[in-house]
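Reply to dn_fold:

You asked what the input looked like. This is it:
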Amino acid sequence: MPALLVPILAQAVALQMGDRTELRVVRDEIRRDLEAETLPRAHLALTWPRSNLAVGYAPSLRYAPIDSPSTRERRAGLVPDQKFSVRHAADGSASVSFGSTRTNLSLSQTVAWALRNLYQEAFSGGAPSSGGTAAPATPGLPSTTQVGRSISRDVNWGAARSGITLSHGLSTNHTLSIGLGYDASGGLGTTARRFYPLIHGPDASATVASMLGPRTQLSSALNAEYNFSEVAPTTVSLQPQPFLLTRSWMIVQRETITHQISRTLSADIGAGVGYARNEDVGQPPVGGVLPTGSVGLSHKTSLAKGMLSTRLSSGLNPSLNSSTGKIDWWYTSDASIGWQGDRWSFQLSSEGDISVSSPAGTNSRRLRGSAFISYDLRHGFSADFGTRAIWEQVNGRYTILPSVVGFVALNWAMDQSLN
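and this is what came back:
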């Protein structure tokens, strides 16, 4: 009975529901498959003046291949696809805040669980998400980098994060933010952890944001994290082998300045230095200092009764590789252009990631891009069609062959206040 009173006593109750149903053709040098997938989702949020609670659920129903079995099962490391598969994802979050006009303290907790298949997610555009704050993150930079997804296998995956954030206005133009947290993520069970290593550890950050003028902002940030990992051995043996214990930590100091050059054009540039250290239990540690940096350019302007947006960016930053449990330095480059009108819209984007310094000895590269056109059908419905491309390589071996995906999809979304 007390649990039933929670939604009633909430100041605001919001329900978000939606679905994306996609028909696609996946093609690489050894296969051409027709697939269908639907991704329904539901997210319920309860809000009070100083706290909120949210839960979400997002299954994935996939039928592939529709036309005929492909030759993909002949590839080493791959298992044959099922005709019909169902995967699930659920998440939850809770937060509470205290404070005054200048100072705010917030506590948060997020949890997530999913039945995942990284190889198939690469072609469908990402992991299922209910739209909640704790939804499973699509593998990628800058938070974690997941490579080596050449194994098509369903595994149980879980994640949790506890955090505390203090924000204080030092003056009219200066704000201090301090954060502490603890993260844990990985496969649930011994078999799953061989594909998703268990990684957990604390992190901390401190940021001072300063307004240098009406169009210029400077951000000074110091970030640190420490991780414990249990990674499956890479050597092949007929006997069961214990997991390898790995410790890694990094600290990064960065200065970033953002300037509004004109009404339609803005630029940001960042520079700093980072130190990363990786240590396998029983082995000497490996570490080093490398520069970090980023540069970006954004442009927005009105065009043909719509808004045209362009973004170019690149950077060199350390990132936790969730396949190896070690800190790698990655060079990233992204470009996108999009136009949003009353009912029509289009977007063209590309991104590339290259590991330039890896203590695990892995040389990883990944390219992906997409182009699509969308039309708003009104009443919460929209349709889109387009293409995706992906290519991924680790140590000179393809984990994802150069692939092209053509798709057409119908979307539906609804936001409803329940009180």
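The first strand starts at residue 12 and ends at 28.
Hope that clears it up.
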